């Protein structure tokens, strides 16, 4: 593979041709889509639109083949063992809601414990809470150490309480920190827990090899990986997926239905009730094929260089404090302007057409534990350029001059 060329990568994204004035650093919220992905969705609707798994006609068979091919693409991308282990959802949030509902109504019993970390997104907190009280299940939280990483000693102590489920994010969306999951999940498995990984941010950093990875479940959203919104994946080991009570009932997911009772279809249909996001699945598979043309290691090195350039420049601007340890980060840096609300900074950057996110980043308990109102997040993608970093630093300098 050739050396990574950010300008060539960027050319695949029509957004930057239509909006050349914008510097887009909100990639942790969602990424832009390459032309191939947009074209694949369009082509489906223009040429093959039909529902899946139900029509006798050729168009439906073609749509079904495209949809099931997309599943195969995801399976090989993650190196899952079986295609049935790939469940299409509308995103990470939907995957977690299925997991929480499914586990709470099957394997978990009153008095059982679930262990998460302080760095979790609301998607890995609220779905558990929706059931904890009624099911009598206890949610434990690993505190942070001084580097704003999970405190591993405290983690070991909480594992000694024998949680039934350990559910951790691969990468913190709020700070960018990469969790030491190989170590943490292996310890969780040794303690007998079911392990879940929130890969919403991590998938664009390091794609797991699921046959080597100590995770029983892995979830991600297509739109953070240059794919469409409204499509995501819940991966699970077959034996566990089979035990999950379906959150959604309806068409497609059944075997037999009477007015007295229903029996369910085999995986993956069992957990995919209703008409799926067919075009979205095709778009996601196209995004995966697009990404596979590039060397992930080189992409990460490049993102690391942008981040370092940004961090070096920040050091020269008084009043700014980075919450992120750059060497631990997957291309994200969150910062604060002392004594100012993060929104003020983001508003001034928006006036310079620099897109960032400010606030608590769907991680309110994290910011509560830090006693901070939130942060301004800069999330880099491989289509960002060193010149954009320079301009952002200049805009930050100007903004801090106004605010201080
Ligand atoms: N977990 C993490 C770490 C995230 O960053 C996000 C998206 N911000 C989610 C879960 C939820 O993803 P989605 O909104 O695509 O369902």
UniProtKB/TrEMBL annotation:
What is the name listed in the Swiss-Prot or TrEMBL entry for this protein?
cysteine desulfurase
Q: What class of enzyme is it?
A: transferase
GO terms, biological process: cysteine metabolic process
Name the InterPro entries for this protein: Aminotrans_V_dom, Cys_dSase_SufS, PyrdxlP-dep_Trfase, PyrdxlP-dep_Trfase_major, PyrdxlP-dep_Trfase_small
| Catalyzed reactions per annotation | (sulfur carrier)-H + L-cysteine = (sulfur carrier)-SH + L-alanine
Instruction: Supply the source organism's classification.
Output: Bacteria, Pseudomonadati, Pseudomonadota, Gammaproteobacteria, Alteromonadales
Source organism of the structure: Alishewanella agri BL06
Aminotransferase class V domain sequence ranges? 23-391
Q: Which UniProt keywords apply?
A: Pyridoxal phosphate, Transferase
Molecular-function GO term, any one: pyridoxal phosphate binding
Annotated family: Belongs to the class-V pyridoxal-phosphate-dependent aminotransferase family. Csd subfamily.
Q: Which cofactor does it need?
A: pyridoxal 5'-phosphate
């Amino acid at each position: 593979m050739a050396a990574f060329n950010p300008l060539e990568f960027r050319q695949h994204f029509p957004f930057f041709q239509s909006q050349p004035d914008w510097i887009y650093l909100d990639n942790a919220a969602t990424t832009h889509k390459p032309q191939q992905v947009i074209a694949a969705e369009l082509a489906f609707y223009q040429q093959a639109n039909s529902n899946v798994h139900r029509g006798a006609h050729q168009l439906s068979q073609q749509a079904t083949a495209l949809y099931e091919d997309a599943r195969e693409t995801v399976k090989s991308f993650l190196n899952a063992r079986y295609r049935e282990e790939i469940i299409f959802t509308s995103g990470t949030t939907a995957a977690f809601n299925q997991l929480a509902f499914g586990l709470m109504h099957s394997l978990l019993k009153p008095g059982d414990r679930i262990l998460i970390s302080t760095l979790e997104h609301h998607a890995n907190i609220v779905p558990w809470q929706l059931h904890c009280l009624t099911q009598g299940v206890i949610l434990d939280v690993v505190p942070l150490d001084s580097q704003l990483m999970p405190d591993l000693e405290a983690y070991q102590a909480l594992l000694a309480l024998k949680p039934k489920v350990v559910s951790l994010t691969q990468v913190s969306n709020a700070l960018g920190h990469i969790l030491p999951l190989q170590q943490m999940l292996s310890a969780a498995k040794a303690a007998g827990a079911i392990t879940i990984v929130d890969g919403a941010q991590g998938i664009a950093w390091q794609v797991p090899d699921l046959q080597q990875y100590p995770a029983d479940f892995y979830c991600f959203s297509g739109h953070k990986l240059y794919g469409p919104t409204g499509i995501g994946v819940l991966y699970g080991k077959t034996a566990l997926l089979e035990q999950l009570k379906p959150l959604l009932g309806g068409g497609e997911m059944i075997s037999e239905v009477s007015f007295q009772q229903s029996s369910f279809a085999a995986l993956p249909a069992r957990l995919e009730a209703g008409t799926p996001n067919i075009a979205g699945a095709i778009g996601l598979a196209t995004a995966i094929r697009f990404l596979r043309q590039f060397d992930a290691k080189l992409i990460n090195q490049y993102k690391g260089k942008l981040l370092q350039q940004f961090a070096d420049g920040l050091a020269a601007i008084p009043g700014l404090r980075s919450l992120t340890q750059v060497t631990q980060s997957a291309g994200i840096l969150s910062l604060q302007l002392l004594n100012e609300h993060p929104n003020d900074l983001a508003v001034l950057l928006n006036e310079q057409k620099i897109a960032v996110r400010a606030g608590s980043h769907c991680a309110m308990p994290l910011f509560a534990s830090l006693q901070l109102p939130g942060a301004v997040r800069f999330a880099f993608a491989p289509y960002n350029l060193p010149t954009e970093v320079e301009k952002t630093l200049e805009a930050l300098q100007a903004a801090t001059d106004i605010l201080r």
